[in-house]
Amino acid sequence: xxxxxEFTGNRTGTPPTGADDRPAPGRLxxxxxxxxxxxxxxxxxxxxVALERLAERADAAGDVRSGVxxxxxxxxxxxxxxxxxxxxxxxxxxxxxADHRPGLLTDVETGLLLRYQRYAVEAVLGTPxxxxxxxxxxxxxxxxxxxxxxxxxxxxxELHCRIADHLGDExxxxxxYERWSGKRPGPSGGCPGCASAxxxxxxxxxxxxxxxxxxxxxSDGDPAACTDQPERDxxxxxxxxxxxxxxEQAAAAHVRAYRRHRRERAAFPHLAAHLRFCALGGxxxxxxxxxxxxxxRLDRPTDDLAAMEFAxxxxxxxxxxxxxxxxxxxxxxxxYGERPATEPDVSTLGALLVGVASxxxxxxxxxxxxxxxxxxMAAWLAERPLAAPVPLPPDDEPxxxxxxxxxxxxxxxxxDELMALTLxxxxxxxxxxxxQYLVExxxxxxxxxxxxxxxxxxxxERGEVLHARSMAARRxxxxxxxxxxAFCNAWNHDRLLPKAYAHDLGEELVLAGDVATxxxxxxxxxxxxxxxxxxIATGVAYAEAxxxxx
Length: 550
Description:
Elements: H1 29-39, H2 45-61, H3 64-80, H4 88-100, H5 107-126, H6 132-146, H7 153-166, H8 170-180, H9 195-205, H10 209-217, H11 231-243, H12 247-261, H13 271-280, H14 284-294, H15 304-323, H16 346-368, H17 372-381, H18 423-433, E1 438-440, E2 444-449, E3 452-459, E4 465-477, H19 481-494, E5 499-504, E6 508-518, H20 525-547
Antiparallel strand pairs: 1-2, 2-3, 3-4, 4-6, 5-6
Helix pairs in contact: 1-2, 1-3, 2-3, 3-4, 4-5, 5-6, 5-7, 6-7, 7-8, 9-10, 9-11, 10-11, 11-12, 11-13, 13-14, 13-15, 14-15, 15-16, 15-17, 16-17, 18-20
Protein name: Putative sensory transduction regulator
Region (Disordered): 1-29, 388-413
Organism: Micromonospora taraxaci
């Protein structure tokens, strides 16, 4: 069991400031303007710091509404940057403000805060940096607000179940599982299409192989409405199918799911299951290839739990490969930070990964006051192949778990067929246009069109937001700040795209624009072509307008 869930993060979901977007009573105009400037900052630490300071200023000035708005924006920034463990304090402060002043939040904000509270509770599963007492307090508060018969009652039961399982308290986890199983998630309960996969992962951790397979087959969710599907279910079926004597099914599921998971940053938590399939299914050469390919992602993991499980699964592949006589094979490892590039052999890399997994497991256990994760990782490392390897389906042909045969290959995807946004899709559109570009670290695609530089990337925790940032080549001196702001305000008043803003670098101003499109339900290749074309056309027009300034 991995103890994770999804998050859809995008700026279009930022809560309104009040009825008809008018400033709420008691708001200070200076803080409202500062919040708008902070939201315009690029993603990353600078925006987080600005929002943190703004929230503190609002508290000091007694502007409760601006404090809540700043913390909502801060929560969104943390989620976009994959730092869910930071949510506890801003969620707690927003909750306290709303309780102290009834009517402060709109109905939309009230529902959104409930969802953020769930995210904050779940953070304990991914990292030892969140305290158990804080988590329990938030969970008990959430249960009180939901009530015994509310639509989010299954959400509370799920959280109780997953936290108990995380602590190694299987009897309590099974108690809450019975109250969660078969229930559809409420408004704050996460993706209904992935609920069965989350339950199947729990059952797999308890050794209930057949029950896990039945859970996936009897799902009453709507996988078609989730952009993580069908790969989310496919990866959940790998180990139950192997243990259940269905290696062919597991092999087909692995090949189909890994086609997508090999490149998606948000899919890092699923890689441990792929590596364990390779180890237990006897596909050691493929396991070493995947480990080599994915090892750089261990330097910047999505969370500590994912890093621990990836390291343990990789160490298992290395141990079995060493037993098979492959221990002296070298495994290239890229440079990162101050660490130089190296080429350790399989045995050395395996020992290194054991150390990573053991250290992280120890951190979890020290926080939890148990030895559960150390024991779980030791059990993984003691596993051995379950059956003779079966042939894997070709990577370039369909044949996944319960996948209908359309009579064509993945290369024959219809231009109107919805699919999850990927880096390859963005690159494919630019290739078809004949554009020149570079792919930078973090999977950001950068190109120049005339007097504008445009960056394309996938934002959101699942990479479901197409984000295009245009930066005009011409920069203005800082002394023309008022003029730059006036230009951006006029542009935003008269045009829809891109959203224009001026970024202050101290001595000069960068005039930039953003276009963010939420593709939670997928995007067709033809639609993506239109979106990229529009982003480039509007970005060029914006840069030309900047160049035309006196």
